[in-house]
Design a protein that fits this description.
This protein folds into 2 domains: about 60 residues, Helix-hairpin-Helix base-excision DNA repair enzymes (C-terminal) (Endonuclease Iii, domain 2, Orthogonal Bundle); about 100 residues, Hypothetical protein, domain 2 (Endonuclease III, domain 1, Orthogonal Bundle), CATH 1.10.340.30. Helix 5 packs across helix 6 and helix 9 packs across helix 11. It starts with a helix and ends with a helix. It is an all-alpha fold and about 220 residues long. InterPro entries: DNA_glycosylase (IPR011257), Endonuclease-III-like_CS2 (IPR004036), Endonuclease3_FeS-loop_motif (IPR003651), HhH-GPD_domain (IPR003265), HhH_base_excis_C (IPR023170), HhH_motif (IPR000445), Nth (IPR005759). Belongs to the Nth/MutY family.
Amino acid sequence: MNAATARHILDTIGTMFPDAHCELNHDNAFELTIAVLLSAQCSDQMVNKVTADLFQKYKSPEDYLAVPIEELEQDIRRIGLYRNKAKHIHNLCRILIDQYGGEIPSEHDQLVKLPGVGRKTANVVVSTAFNVPAIAVDTHVERVSKRLGFAGWDDSVLEVEKKLMKRVPRDEWSLTHHRLIFFGRYHCKAQNPQCQVCPLLDVCREGKKRMKTSLIRKDKERRA
């Protein structure tokens, strides 16, 4: 991919989703970290339903540790993998109190050492809560990046992130992350992408293949 094509893609998606943002409800870095941790293999919509009550009940790491883990499990049981996530939250809160004065660290290297916080979660937190440029690669970002040619079909999540960081100006990393998510969530969906009305069809490998397949199928139906 050349620079002009990359710029065309970024500008087009920016025009489509100028107000893209983090859709996980939160008021601070601590709540954001908990919300992103809960969002693994779960929709943001469901996480927001659960955290609406959760964040009223628990305001600090101390609050989470003040109840038995079984109670926390029940509070988040609508979330997938809720038992593991409850365990991660308890362990994370203990570390925050013991090592960071009860506050979420702002350094990426420190964040990824917290229970339940992987590279993607850390990137979301530093970007959204601390305004540090970062690109978090979730399923939407990975899918869109590969379809549009930012990355190869067989690239790992880390390889996708590195290639995006090379092709996207650093001051646009965080905004591009949100816009790619919106593009993948609301337009270039996994099962039913809107290829027929996509302004990026001319540069999309997946879209061209899908449209060609659709034309062949319609032609066969017409001839039948």
